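Researcher: Re-running this chain for the archive, since the previous output was lost when a drive failed. Same request as before.
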Amino acid sequence: MGLLGSKPAAAAVSLAGRRILALGPALAELADGPLAGAELTAAGVEALDGLTRGACDLVLIDADAWKAEELAAAVKALAAAKAPPPVLMVGQSLPAGLVRNLLRLEQADILEAPFSADQLTAALQGLMAAGAAAPSAPSGASRCWAVTGAVGGSGATTLAVEIATAMAARGNLRVCLIDLNLADGAAAAYLGSTAAMRLAEFGSAAERIDQAMLQAFATPVSDRLDLLAHPRDPQAFETAAHDAVLRVLEIACETYDQVILDVPRHRRAWSLEALAGSDEVLVISELTVPALLAARSLSDEIEDALGSGLKPRIVLNRLASRMFGPAPSMAEAERALQRKAIAGISSDWEAAAASANLGGPIAQHRPKSKIVKDVQVLVERVVAEAARRDAQRAA
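Model: Regenerated structure tokens:
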């Protein structure tokens, strides 16, 4: 009996340009049917050894064409490869051991023969769509920036959202914003997104969190920006294990080019480790004397606790566009801080409020806002300084 059953096939969705590695001679007959337009390459099971996503878009395997033990070993080796492509296995004989090895893969499916052309097309589309949605490996060394407020209401979450948005707009970067305010984080509400990161469910089994699980946690905000946020839960800081939080940060930094952390200002069991693992720490302060004093104290505390040479950068938020008034000037603020501020962000209450109410970054709803322009300057300044430091280390 052939792979395709007798049910009439519907018009196949175009697979033009898709690179499909076909393992099994019977799959060649699909080239003029459901696989029309795809770049079909025939191969043996040895082709699975070390195969990565860059080599092809999908692997289609006819399980009936190979000895079960040989195929199971090849699939197991593929599962151990870094970023393997999606795999669709078809056939009438699918031993349990083979299926178990197949399920080790991040994206895999099984289609029992005989099947229709529609069923094959649907399976192919599902796997390719999942593969496109999955976070790809970072193009280079991942960077992590931590953003924290010196006092409550300083605008740290708003700026974390805008910084992540600005980073996602810089070239071909995959960016992840992680809201570590587990009990009452506001990033999801600001973005009109869903909070889906339920860390309490893992208990002490943090090792279960992998890239596939991270994908399930992530809420896409745009093509290049994902959000990881915890549903509001007053007990979350107690129920989310220390190792689970750090495991999420570790996997995120392996998955994305840039990670932005919205860090609670009150110290948690994992706070210092999260900050120590960051390339930059941005402390957000308003231009009030209490906020400036708090920003100075918090920066000193972080420096003393880490002892790694990492110096927090202070960002002055809600600068008023006026010459006179009771608020300190930028120069006066820096004297109170006893250090230079990395940047200042203009006050634009109307743009911030409108974006929060509509759900989405200010850059989306008010792209000409001074906040957007100032955040872009901040991002470019921090990136440039980091590049200079890297060049000095390499020299």
